Amino acid sequence: MKTSSLYILTGMLLVVACKKQPPKAVAHTAAVVFVTGGDVKLLTTSGESKVAKGTVLHENDKIQTGTKSQVDILLPGNIIVRLDQKSTLEMSEMKLGEGGVQADRLILQKGTVFAKVAKLEGKSSFAIKTPTLVAGVRGTKFMTEADEAGNGKVAVIEGKVGVESKTGQSGEVTEGEQASVTAAGGLTEAKMDAATAARTNELSAGVDKLKADQLQIFQNLLNEQKAALEKASGTDDVQEQMKKSEEAIQKLKDQTSEQIKQMKEQTDAKVKEAQQKVDDQGAKSQDAIEKAKGNSVEEMRKKQQDLFKKQE
Predict the structure, then answer these.
(1) Cβ neighbours around 224 below 10 Å, total
(2) Could you tell me how far CA 55 lies from the centroid of its own chain?
(3) CB-based contacts of 169, cutoff 8 Å, min separation 6
(4) What are the contacts of 19-24 at 24+ separation with CB within 8 A?
(5) CA dihedral 276, 280, 281, 287 (to 10 degrees)
(6) Whole-prediction pTM value?
(7) What gap in Å lies between CA 309 and CA 129, rounded to an integer?
(8) pLDDT per position as a tens digit, 33-89
(9) What would you report as the CA-atom Rg of the chain, rounded to the nearest whole angstrom?
(10) Quick one: which H or E segment has residue 172?
(11) Kind and range of the H or E element at 256?
(12) Each residue's pLDDT tens digit, 222-256
């Protein structure tokens, strides 16, 4: 009886072991599509570097902006994030699971961030967290703020955002509304004030002005990566695909740099040509002045000679 039970137990373990395990969620990447100002830094475990158009962002990377500097980040699924000046954002979680389920969570440590999130499919999710709140969305345009004292704010200009404070208080913020959370975790919902509305609309307008064709190039690369990650069966496949995606983005970045270099060379050549024309015209004018001056002197001498002759 004991032997029979052992066989049954062993058989059950073998069946369980042979069952296909659910695929593990893998990390995807994001791309920097535009940079304004010269003070945008990437902070990683490897150190600090300057952010430029085409920079690839991985999970746990941090972006830091200085005065008068902004950065626009594109995630798969047409999610655009604009990090305003004097802000720090951590790409805390960027996961892709079975069936293309995408889960992104960004941490705003301080400052201001605006997000434009296309309607998410299925169980996909997007959230921005601050020290005192979590804002979760499925398709919207909204701004999130976090000051150094720990106070937070969420303002919505399109769609709706679910907000939860660190103390568990929750609410839903809809278009034209805002939710303020204190450092202690108290949550208050209200109609959006004029200053907040102006700032949110300003950031939204900036994002809306981003060139669609440029965004589409990066989005296509991220979509290709996403599709490959869904099909990948092992870590090697995932890493290889991510490497290819990063190489493609880097190639695009290099092409952009080369275009800027060519434009600069063309501009320099035109400036040089224009300067040469100015110099040539200046030389002609000077010759004319000298000639006129010479003629005037010669004419005066002649008049003096004629006058002397008359006196003789």
Answers:
(1) 15
(2) 9
(3) 185, 186, 187
(4) 22/98, 23/97, 23/98
(5) 160
(6) 0.69
(7) 103
(8) 899 998 999 999 899 999 998 888 999 999 999 999 999 999 988 899 999 999 999
(9) 33
(10) strand 170-174
(11) helix 235-311
(12) 777 667 666 654 444 556 666 666 677 777 666 66
Q: Which pairing describes strands 102-117 and 125-129: parallel, antiparallel, or unpaired?
A: parallel
Q: Two tokens at 252?
A: 């695009």
Question: Residue 43 is encoded by which pair of tokens?
Answer: 């902070």
Phi, then psi, of 211 in degrees rounded to 5: -70, 125
CA distance 260 to 64: 25
SS3 265: helix
Structure tokens that stand for 55 in this block: 């920079």
Query: Which value, to the nearest 10 degrees, does the dihedral of the CA atoms of residues 263, 269, 272, 273 take?
Result: -120
Structure token pair of residue 184: 């202690």
Q: Give the type of residue at 63.
A: I
CB 123 within 8 A of CB 143: no
Q: One-letter amino acid identity for 75?
A: L
Name the more confident of 143 and 16. 143
Task: Say how far apart CA 88 and CA 175 lie, in whole Å.
Answer: 26
